[in-house]
Design goal:
By secondary structure, this protein is an alpha+beta fold. 14% of the residues lie in helices and 35% in strands. The protein contains 6 helices and 28 strands. It has a 6-stranded mixed beta barrel. The radius of gyration is 21 Å and the shape is globular. Bound molecules: 2-acetamido-2-deoxy-beta-D-glucopyranose (5 copies). This is Peptidase A1 domain-containing protein.
Length: 436
């Protein structure tokens, strides 16, 4: 494959650039300019992503890797719900937990480009900065930006970060993310998203990072808490955005992140967004029942109920790959699914317990929310191995070793749908859309 490529200039022999230029040689679309307030969303394994594995993974490996990442992310989400900042113990293998979808943003004057991970369950933006200990090589260099400044301890924003400390005069903070911990200085600079300039955007300039959970070029939090992008761009975007996440089966497709109320779909079904004052960044919805085919599954109401005190309920999350339901809900759905599929022998693969090695006629699964039924076709429910001929139901029970009270509607189940977050009207919309 490499033999068909022109020789690369020596300058390009850093790993990241090598991947980037290989991808760009094959896929001319990687560089397309963005318009208005719409950013391109790439799967982290896309040919345009510098973070895709250097060796293509086998189907089984990539499924197992995504499951391992999910485990770390679920622990992160549980730590949010529990209100405790715990650093989960990554079991045995190294878990690299960069979230699944990335967007391009530029920071500073003149602009420096970063490919940041999109995370709906986090508020803050963090960017690895020059001199960071434990960050990857692609860092933002504040010294080269004429608009960069560090916030001091008296800044109002300093009161919104967890456990700020005042080393020297700058406002610094430590926090955990997945299996990582970071130390950062609260900073400000101009951020450009598609064609929109956001001057004086407040973010964490990462000085130190341990573990491997922090995305290599930073994180763009789309949660709705105090320091979030939504809060900081209130006038520009009015706390409204939508995304269409491309399927990881077609890594050449890109999706979109559309910021602000302009251009959002008119024909879309909505459900109410619920607010949990203790976990202000999470997007809770009211899941009332689940249907397999036409039959409503018998699930104990407590497994789905929203409870702002314990944090129980259902969230939409862009980072978890496979939907997780608390144990009693998952078992009921899985049993109903198996019954509908019929006699075929059930096997398991990694964390999936409903796999088939013969072709099956899959029923649909419908998530029934207040005011909105979302019926998922087989493409959002099943993962297939072309090589081994295995098909698995791509959902699982919430891990029972953590505080598992949260149902998570994950990104595989959201792929090729437009998901609209309309915070001012407290509603979340879902409509089918092929992201291309
Ligand atoms: C934050 O992390 C830094 C670097 O690891 C450490 O020196 C500092 O003591 C930590 N501060 C707090 C408040 O934990
Ligand atoms: C960032 O914070 C560290 C302490 O965590 C401090 O030593 C350093 O001077 C700060 N950098 C800037 C640019 O303020
Ligand atoms: C993606 O694009 C590359 C290069 O054009 C092509 O070789 C590959 O088959 C495409 N993959 C899919 C899944 O379409
Ligand atoms: C399941 O197996 C039984 C007995 O082998 C057969 O009568 C029945 O039709 C099968 N059901 C399905 C859905 O294939
Ligand atoms: C969802 O589907 C059920 C039938 O299973 C129906 O009774 C209900 O009215 C539907 N809800 C909406 C909002 O369409």
């Amino acid at each position: 494959m490499t033999s068909s490529l022109p020789p690369l200039p020596p300058l390009f022999f850093s790993l990241a650039f090598l991947f980037l230029s290989l991808a760009q040689g094959l896929i001319p679309k990687c560089d397309t300019p963005e318009h208005g307030s719409t950013l391109r969303v790439l799967h982290v394994y896309s040919p345009c992503s510098p973070f895709r594995p250097s060796e293509p993974l086998s189907w089984e490996e990539s499924v197992l890797q995504m499951q391992a990442k999910d485990q770390a992310r679920l622990q992160f989400l549980s730590s949010l719900v529990a209100g405790k900042s715990v650093v989960p113990i990554a079991s045995g293998r190294q878990v690299i937990q960069s979230p699944t979808y990335i967007v391009r943003a530029t920071i500073g004057t003149p602009p420096q480009t970063m490919l940041m991970a999109m995370d709906t369950s986090n508020d803050a933006a963090w960017i690895p900065c020059t001199g960071c200990v434990g960050c990857s090589s692609a860092v933002f260099d504040p010294v080269k930006s004429t608009t960069f400044k560090t916030l001091n301890c008296q800044a109002a924003q300093c009161k919104q970060v967890p456990n700020p400390t005042c080393g020297g005069s700058s406002c610094s903070f430590n926090m955990t993310y997945g299996s990582s911990s970071i130390a950062a200085n609260l900073s400000q600079d101009t951020v450009k998203l598609a064609t929109d300039d956001v001057p004086g955007y407040t973010f964490g300039c990462i000085q130190k990072s341990t573990g491997s959970s922090v995305p290599p070029q930073g994180l763009l939090g789309l949660g709705r808490g105090p320091l979030s992008l939504l809060s900081q761009t209130q006038n520009l975007y009015q706390s409204t955005f939508s995304y269409c996440l491309p399927s990881f089966k077609s890594p050449n497709f890109s999706g979109s992140l559309r910021l602000g109320p302009i251009g959002q779909p008119k024909r879309i079904k909505y459900t109410q967004l619920l607010r949990n004052p203790r976990r202000s960044s999470l997007y809770y919805v009211n899941l009332i029942a689940i249907r397999v085919g036409r039959r409503v599954v018998d699930i104990p109401p407590s497994a789905l109920a929203f409870n702002p005190v314990t944090g129980a309920g259902t969230i939409f999350d862009s980072g978890v790959v496979f939907t997780r339901l608390v144990q009693p809900a998952y078992i009921a759905v899985r049993d109903a699914y198996r019954k509908r599929v019929g006699n075929a022998t059930v096997s398991s693969l990694g964390g999936f317990d409903t796999c088939y090695s013969v072709p099956i006629a899959s029923p649909t699964i419908t998530f029934m929310f207040t005011g909105m039924n979302v019926t998922l076709p087989p493409d959002n429910l099943l993962i297939h191995s072309t090589a081994g001929g295995i098909t698995c139901l791509a959902m699982a029970a919430a891990p029972d070793n953590v505080n598992s009270i949260l149902n998570v509607i994950a990104n595989m189940q959201q792929q090729n749908h437009r998901v609209l977050f309309d915070v001012p009207n407290s509603r979340l919309g879902v409509a089918r859309e092929l992201c291309t």
